[in-house]
Every structure is written in structure tokens, then in C-alpha cells.
Amino acid sequence: MPSLVREIPAAPSAIALMHFSNRLTYETDCSDVFGSQQSGEIDFVLVDVRGPLAFERGHVPGAINIPTRLLNAEALAHYAKTTLFVVYCAGPHCNGANKAAVKLAALGYPVKEMIGGVTGWLDEGFELSVAQAATSPIHCAC
Question: How far apart, in Å, are the Cα atoms of 89 and each of 6, 23, 72, 113, 134?
Fold first, then answer.
């Protein structure tokens, strides 16, 4: 009797390669963002898509704040269509980054999601930038 892991067979290697390679075209992670920042190779715009209050309480260093609901052609007019946006939200429990990625892609911009969001950033042991003292937990107001 196979384990629960093997109950559904793994995909053939060629299909798995295509699947996981494709995922990397849509996603990056906190470690890659941090590493790029540390090396000075910042060829993307990091966008925190949570509300302003959550952003002020703590955000990834170098991020700008454009809440998902405010992402539109007017707000992005000064960015070249080749600008790569990396979006993040509160964490795996929040779909604000996905909604933002849909908007950016619909507007014709390349986009990746920083998987893990603020939660992932903190889990990696990285520090947040804080605009004011946090008095309540960071939450998504996307």
C-alpha cells in the first residue's frame, strides 16, 4: 500500500520541470528580494499593496505603498511599461498581492508576487521599516 504522498503519482520529470519553472516566472521570495537589495541589484519596484496604516506600522525596506484598490493607469503613468513590479501583502492568508498582480498584468506591466509577504519576510528574520510605533498587529487592508 503506497504512502499518502505516493497515493497520487508524481508528474513525469519533464512536466514537473515545466510546472516549477513556470511558477518562478510569477513568483519571487523574500530571500531573493533581500539578496537583491543587499547586492544593490534592484531592477524592480517593490510594492506593498496593503492599506496605508498597515504600511506605516511595518513594511519591507525599499517598498512603496500603493494599495491594491488604488492601482490604476493614472497611478502608474510615470512608470515605463517595462518596469517589473514585485507585489506583496500581509502574507499567505491575504490575496491582495494576487489581486494587485492581476491589475498590473491587465495594465500591461510585468509583475511577480513576493510569496510570503510580510509574514514571510519576518519568518526569514528580516527587519521591517516602521514609520511609526506599531500598536496593533499588522493586517491586510487591501
Answer: 34, 18, 17, 9, 17
Contact 104, 111 (CB under 8 A): yes
Cα–Cα distance, 22 to 12 (Å, whole number) = 15
How far is it, in rounded angstroms, from Cα 137 to Cα 18? 39
- The C-alpha cell at 48 is 506593498
| Whether the Cβ atoms of residue 60 and residue 127 lie closer than 8 Å to each other | no
**pLDDT (tens digit per residue) in 73-84:** 999 999 999 999
Beta strand ranges found along 1-142 (DSSP E): 27-29, 45-48, 64-65, 85-88, 111-115
DSSP state of 101: H
Q: What is the DSSP letter of 129?
A: B
Contacts of 4 (CB under 8 A, 6+ apart): none
Q: Is 111 exposed, middle or buried (0-12, 13-18, 19+ CB in 10 A)?
A: buried
Over residues 64-93, mean pLDDT: 96
From residue 106, alpha-carbon distances to 37, 90, 109, 110 in Å are 27, 22, 7, 10
